[in-house]
Amino acid sequence: MVDFMSVVARQQAVMCMILGRCHEQTDLIEHKVEGLRSTNEESIQMDFAAATKIRSRSRSRSRGRERDEGKLVLLYPKKWGEKINIKKKLQETIDPAKIKVGIRNIKNLNKGGILIECAKEDEIDKLRAEVESNENLREDIVIRRPIKVRPKLIIYRVEEDLDIEESIVNLRDQNEELKESDLKHEYIMKTNKGNHWIVSIDPEAFQKIIKLGKVNLEISRDIIAINLTVNNIHFIFISVYCSPSEDIVPILQQLESIIEVHQDSFISINGDFNAKSSAWGPTEQDERGKALLELVLRQDLDIGNDIYSAPTFDSERGKSWIDLTLTKNISREVFKNWVLHQDVTASDHNLVTYEITYEKSERPKNKC
User: Fold this and answer.
1) Is residue 60 scored above 90 in pLDDT?
2) What's the pLDDT score for residue 180?
3) Which residues have C-beta within 8 Å of that of residue 202, sequence separation ≥ 6?
4) What is the number of alpha carbons within 13 Å of residue 355 lying toward its C-beta?
5) 236 has which bridge partners?
6) Residues 283-333 pLDDT 10s
7) What is the pLDDT of residue 295?
8) Strands 266-272 and 233-241, how do they pair?
9) What's the burial of 94, exposed, middle or buried (CB within 10 Å: 0-12/13-18/19+)?
10) What is the phi/psi pair of residue 238, to 5°?
């Protein structure tokens, strides 16, 4: 019996000790709650700088949160090039707590601007109203929402009379990545190297194009380009016709744009350029030949013609060397047996054949 009572006594002592600790924890919790209440009351008097510091620390502890959860606004000096410390000016003028605006983050921008991120849409409106209603701020600062800028593509050296609607259709037809994209004509940029077409595009399609690294747009009736892959080796075969009655420069500009897009490919160009030069035949150079030769030199092309061959054009109207074979990135070890064949076809242009040979286990060698 004595042992039983002693056990009960010990249990009662333990219970009292536990209850005492519970009361201590309760008092501690109540003390902390009271402290938080007082801190919250003091925070109502917090100025703009303190608010931004607290918001910045809070944001740094939660980096996983996306910025688009908040709302953004831009502030810039009203006068172009004027040096104003916008952040300091706001700190001295606006109390976010009074207008009930939560500042999540502030970031410096170029040209003296800042970006402010708030928690809610209406807080942006409150901040904007405060800036625009304050005479000291509105004279020096412009506040506005960010404008989403669509990515843009530049398509070089397009025709001067480019049909915009037809070209948009061609872009979609010739590029699988653009079939469902939101394409929009922006403007034609005129330069001393030709006309460039600026097209805006939705971000998703833009990323696909960047990953692919190219855009196909062939709209010329005088140039045909074929992309041929043999044993994982990529060749570009281009056929060109330059009418003798039309300016050769626009066609050469289109040809050059294709070459630049496929700089790393093995390119073979075959064309009736109606251009004369001693660089590819025993004849004096004309203006068309000069323009073509400048392109050859600029793009580091090789001339495949044999300057001692028979005329490439032979008819009752005359004889001339106006048909060319040009190559890029194809060495003489690979490009072989350029031959002009007379009396093989009924055309007044003689047939030209050549070979591009390589071992199946090796790629054609680039020029040194």
Assistant:
1) no
2) 85
3) 150, 151, 181, 182
4) 6
5) 227, 267
6) 999 999 999 999 999 999 999 999 899 999 998 889 999 999 999 999 888
7) 95
8) parallel
9) buried
10) -120, 130
71 near 124, Cβ under 8 Å? yes
Vertex 330: Cα angle to 341 and 219 (nearest 5) = 80
Q: 150 and 200 in contact (C-beta within 8 Å)?
A: yes
Q: Residues of 214-244 as b/e, b for ≥16 C-beta within 10 angstroms?
A: ebbbebbebbebeeeeeeeeebbebebebee
Q: What is the pLDDT of residue 274?
A: 95
- CB 104 within 8 Å of CB 55: yes
pLDDT band at 204 (very low <50, low <70, confident <90, very high): confident
Percentage of the residues of the chain whose pLDDT score is greater than 70: 76
- To which H or E segment does residue 275 belong? none
> Going by C-beta distance under 8 Å and a sequence separation of 6 or more, which residues neighbour residue 138?
131, 132
Helix (H) or strand (E) holding 354: strand 351-356
Determine the average pLDDT of the residues in 126-131: 87
**Closest C-alpha to 50, from 117, 102, 128:** 102
Read off the pTM.
0.45
Angle between helices 86-93 and 48-60 (to 10 degrees): 120
Residues 105-118: what's their mean pLDDT?
Answer: 85
Helix, strand or coil, per DSSP, at residue 339: strand
The SS3 of residue 40 is: helix
Res 303: pLDDT: 95
Residues in the chain: 368
Interatomic CA distance for residues 158 and 168, integer angstroms: 13
Q: Nearest to residue 329, comparing CAs of 277, 265, 274, 276?
A: 265
* DSSP one-letter string for 282-309: SS---HHHHHHHHHHHHTTPEE---TTS
Q: Give me the domains of the chain, ranges plus CATH numbers.
A: 71-144 (3.30.70), 148-215 (no CATH), 218-362 (3.60.10.10)
pLDDT at 45 over 60: no
